[in-house]
From TrEMBL:
Name of the protein in question: PLP-dependent aminotransferase family protein
All copies of domain HTH gntR-type, residue ranges: 10-78
UniProt-listed SUPFAM superfamilies: PLP-dependent transferases (SSF53383), Winged helix' DNA-binding domain (SSF46785)
PANTHER family xref list: HTH-TYPE TRANSCRIPTIONAL REGULATORY PROTEIN GABR, TRANSCRIPTIONAL REGULATORY PROTEIN
Transport recorded as keyword: no
Keywords: Aminotransferase, DNA-binding, Hydrolase, Pyridoxal phosphate, Transcription, Transcription regulation, Transferase
Gene3D superfamilies with a match to the protein in the record: Aspartate Aminotransferase, domain 1, Type I PLP-dependent aspartate aminotransferase-like (Major domain), Winged helix-like DNA-binding domain superfamily/Winged helix DNA-binding domain
MF terms (GO), sorted A to Z: hydrolase activity; transaminase activity
Similarity-based family: In the C-terminal section; belongs to the class-I pyridoxal-phosphate-dependent aminotransferase family.
């Protein structure tokens, strides 16, 4: 998918949002004023309704306006999110590291699963944000007409109709994907693990981001693989120069990366960097395992393309899931594994035969009826608003010198606290106040991020996140000395 010549210029919705924001700052629009409806603004400005919608969506994320049910959009009294400084990019030494994180992850996160905890450390958004009742009805419809033979026919690579619906969604991201390449798995973690197994052997080196999703580190540990951490920018993702140098220096057999809304940073690789990444790895013959579970949770005008969109050699093993965007608990993910698709399907068949047939049937039924995009629009608005609220709370309550990312999608931000704050000590204090956090030590093989936290802003109900962040900021201040 080629970029247009004016790619670096503001998009129409951004220009419209900036114009309205300027009117708010100047006082021409005041708190409580109602904005024109989407239809009115579209006609007056001669732009599409979707352009107006995205502009209003962006202004919501900035905390400048708010939607009122069945009434419209209004200027809010809230102040814009402060422009906090970004965390410093990680600069790993590029040495090979054995991985032993499973026990630490279990100890730190196993304590944070109780329902009454404020879930700042959770890996999932609030289950209240998902259409679980609608999904249940779709599952019921599918099961009433289920052909018993489907329980045999839908063994790996999985439900044909669901694979076709997944392939259709990728057309919206700007590229075609053959349904025959897809393997349905028990969630994205199984898909990622199977892909990793397909392209490595025990003792191999795998390049990962820094900081890195702890699930990737656990997978490397389980398979007896070693990690090499790549310098990663909190805004733009993996540093391609750093990666190229590591490929020269080490016999890296695979890369496990998250180009879209990386966990924990929330970083988004620019399109041109994704294209260059795929080209770099193609030259070396190195497979890319692409974790794209947050790709649908973008706050902008359209879904950012995955690296898979630029893969002409079949070296990108792309993995996605419905767990973060639609159906937590259904455990349905997939791998589009390119030239390794048959090997991934074979390993899936050997390990667990197939993903649960009822879950696949129910999701295929739901997707056929076109409700997914409506749900996603609401979910993205909610997450963007949750981010704006969280960033205001962090700016107000956390110690001076705190830095935080401002992702363009997903539901995580990465917080760099003053060096005096021990994130593990803060984690223990927070638990005593019924707040969970994810300390930075979880996100590196060598536990380097000792004054960092990953914060989940995807639990917006009842102002719970803001209250928890206020308490967490006070606790962090108490550790500054």
């Amino acid at each position: 998918m080629d970029e247009t010549p004016d790619q670096k210029l503001p998009k129409r919705y951004e220009a419209l949002a900036d114009e309205i924001a300027a009117s708010i700052r100047s006082g021409a629009l005041r708190a409580g004023d109602r904005l024109p409806s989407v239809r009115q603004a579209s006609a007056a400005r001669r732009v599409s309704p979707s352009t107006v919608f995205e502009a209003y969506y962006l202004l919501e994320a900035r905390g400048l306006i708010a939607a009122r049910p069945r009434s419209g959009y209004y200027v809010t009294a809230a102040q814009p999110v402060a422009q906090q400084r970004m965390p410093e990019p990680a600069q790993p030494v590029g040495e090979v590291q054995a991985v032993a994180v499973a026990e630490r992850v279990q100890q730190l996160l196993g304590l944070a699963r109780e329902r009454d905890l404020a879930p700042l450390g959770s890996a999932f958004p609030s289950p209240a944000l998902f259409p679980l009742a609608t999904l249940s009805r779709a599952l019921g419809r599918a099961m009433r007409v289920l052909d018993p033979w489907r329980t045999v026919e839908d063994l790996s690579p999985g439900h044909e109709g669901l694979r076709r619906q997944i392939a259709i969604r990728y057309i919206g991201a700007g590229f075609s994907l053959d349904p025959a390449e897809l393997v349905i798995c028990n969630g994205a973690m199984e898909a990622l693990n199977l892909c990793l197994e397909a392209v490595t052997r025990p003792g191999d080196l795998v390049a990962v981001e820094s900081p890195c999703f702890y699930g990737a580190l656990q997978a490397l540990e389980r398979l007896g693989l070693r990690a090499v951490e790549v310098a990663t920018d909190p805004r733009g993702g993996v540093d391609l120069g750093s990666l190229a140098a590591l490929l020269e220096r080490h016999p890296i057999k695979a890369c496990w990366l998250m180009p879209n809304f990386q966990n924990p940073l929330g970083s988004l690789m620019p399109v041109e960097n994704k294209r260059a990444l795929v080209a770099l790895l193609r030259e070396r013959g190195v497979p890319l395992i692409e974790d794209d579970v947050y790709g649908e949770l973008y706050f902008g005008e359209r879904r950012p393309p995955p690296a898979k969109a630029f893969d002409e050699a079949g070296l990108v093993l792309h993995c996605g899931s419905f767990s973060k965007s639609l159906a937590p608990g259904y455990r349905v993910g997939w791998a589009a594994a390119g030239r390794h698709a048959q090997e991934v399907a074979r390993r899936k068949l050997m390990s667990s035969l197939s993903a649960a047939v009822p879950s696949q049937e129910g999701l295929a039924e739901y997707l056929r009826h076109g409700a997914y995009d409506r749900h996603l629009r609401q979910l993205r608005r909610t997450l963007a608003d949750g981010q704006a609220r969280a960033l205001r709370a962090i700016d107000k309550h956390f110690p001076p010198g705190t830095r935080v990312t401002r992702p363009e999608g997903g539901y995580f931000c990465w917080v760099e606290l003053p060096p005096a704050v021990d994130a593990l000590a803060l984690h223990r204090l927070a638990l005593s106040h019924r707040i969970s956090v994810a300390p930075g030590a979880l996100f590196s093989a060598d536990q380097r991020f000792r004054h960092h936290l990953r914060i989940n802003y995807g639990h917006p109900e009842g102002g719970r996140t803001e209250a928890a962040l206020k308490t967490l900021g006070q606790l962090a201040r108490s550790l500054c000395g």
